[in-house]
Amino acid sequence: MHLPDVTTRFQLCVLALVVLSCAACDSRPLPPVLPTGASPGDVIRGRSLLAQYQCGACHVIPDVPVARGIAGPPLGDFGRRSYIAGHVPNNAELLAQWIVDPRSLVPNTTMPSMGVSADDARDMAAYLHTLR
Questions:
Q1: With the C-alpha atoms ordered 91, 45, 59, 103, is the resulting torsion angle positive or negative?
Q2: Among 110, 52, 112, which residue's Cα sits nearest to residue 61?
Q3: What phi and psi values does residue 60 have, to the nearest 5 degrees?
């Protein structure tokens, strides 16, 4: 059995790198990654609802108009967080529950209940989970 010489192996490696780097040049945006166990909500509607419920009065939220509050934590990387409010596992179901009734999960939280319906909360959670 004949093995390729060092020059041929080097050329094959360079060719493989060129092919792989061209494949990585696809300019289409990747779809949002949902956390394990997430039920998809309407991301676009969720972003709009974050403005409607005035979440930006307390939080900085990317792509939500006038969401520049400083009373609550910024939510720019919310989809990467492991926990909600530092205590609750960050998954779609618990985040929706948090949005509807935060004190049901963390009794001493300063986050108020804003009268958000379960359906609206699901969509808001879907948007927040896209933030990376």
A1: negative
A2: 52
A3: -90, 125
Task: For CA atoms 89, 95, 122, 127, give the dihedral sign.
Answer: negative
- Residue type present at position 20: L
Query: Taken in order 77, 79, 80, 85, is the CA torsion positive or negative?
Result: positive
Which residues are CB-contacts of 61 (< 8 A; sequence separation ≥ 6)? Answer: 50, 55, 67, 74, 75, 76, 128, 131
CA 129-112-107 angle, 5° bins: 90
Which residues are paired to 88 by β-bridges? 84
pLDDT in tens, 10-56: 666 555 555 445 444 444 343 444 444 445 789 999 999 999 999 99
Of 14-28, 61-75, 114-128, the range with the lowest mean pLDDT is: 14-28
Nearest of 53, 26, 28, 70 to residue 128 by alpha carbon? 53
Locate the DSSP E strands across 1-132: 83-84, 88-89
